[in-house]
Specification:
This protein has about 250 residues and is of the alpha/beta class. It is about 25% helix and about 30% strand. The protein has 6 helices and 16 strands. α2 links the parallel β5 and β6. The mean pLDDT is about 95.
């Protein structure tokens, strides 16, 4: 585990596991704190968080994959209901043994994650539903730090839409347009993903929208691609890359 301060009362927590390094984020308000994602569940994440704040902590998982929800049982956890089935599948002993080679984890009693405004006390964040990577993916925008936390909705490498639980490219593009509108309205300048320590600019989000448009219009090069559990067609536009399926 590693902890890095990104901004005042804003921390990134890194954990390593079967699907690479995963990033969690802790945003601390005057009354309570928000933890974004809970990693693989291999460590005492609650202890790490309690060393950073004594305030009550809510956990909002950006989606239901094991590398983002593994430690959820340690907190008051919330997940978008569209990802409940994904969460059950990814936290099954069969999935964990097959892909993570690890021990079974304790499942959380997930509360329903609601989109909209969440007040942490002197610090409000906005939760946007962004179906794409999964049906229940969300992004969290923090006007206080001018940062958005995007899970696997966008990242510096391939975005995976080549999963059974992924949406079509058309629906993913709709999510990105909605996200861009919110990012511009909130004055967000940095986008953080669930797997990279490198912040992205708003320009990358715009490039993903262009890439989706080109795929929909049939104006982009395609090649077959397979990365672990993700299988589909890979396309690229500038610094945006997508593995997708025809749906």
């Amino acid at each position: 585990m590693a902890v890095k301060k990104l901004y005042e009362n804003t921390y990134r927590i890194s954990e390593w596991g079967a699907f690479g390094c995963v990033k969690m984020y802790l945003l601390i308000g005057k009354e309570r704190a928000l933890l974004i994602d809970s990693g693989y569940g291999k460590c005492d994440l609650k202890k790490i968080v309690s060393d950073l704040t004594i305030k009550p902590v809510l956990l909002y998982d950006t989606h239901g994959h094991i590398d983002h929800v593994g430690g959820s049982a340690q907190f008051e956890a919330h997940l978008h209901p569209a990802d409940n089935d994904v969460y059950i599948s990814h936290t099954s002993s069969e999935f964990i043994q097959r892909y993570c080679k690890g021990k079974p984890i304790e499942r959380a009693k997930m509360r329903e994650l609601e989109t909209g405004i969440l007040d942490l006390g002197g610090r409000t964040v906005e939760i946007i539903h962004t179906p794409g990577h999964t049906q229940g993916s969300v992004c969290i925008l923090d006007g206080y730090s001018k940062m958005a936390f995007c899970g696997d909705t966008i990242n510096p490498w391939d975005v995976w839409l080549g999963l059974d639980e992924s949406t079509s490219v058309t629906d993913y593009r709709k999510s990105l347009v909605r996200l861009l509108d919110a990012v511009e309205r909130c004055g967000i300048t940095k986008l953080h993903s669930g797997h990279s320590g490198m912040a992205m600019s708003v320009k990358r989000l715009q490039n993903y929208i262009v890439l989706c448009s080109r795929i929909i219009e049939g104006r982009v090069k395609c090649r077959n691609a397979e990365k672990g559990i993700c299988k589909g067609i890979k396309s690229r536009y500038k610094n945006a890359a997508l593995i997708w399926r025809k749906k």
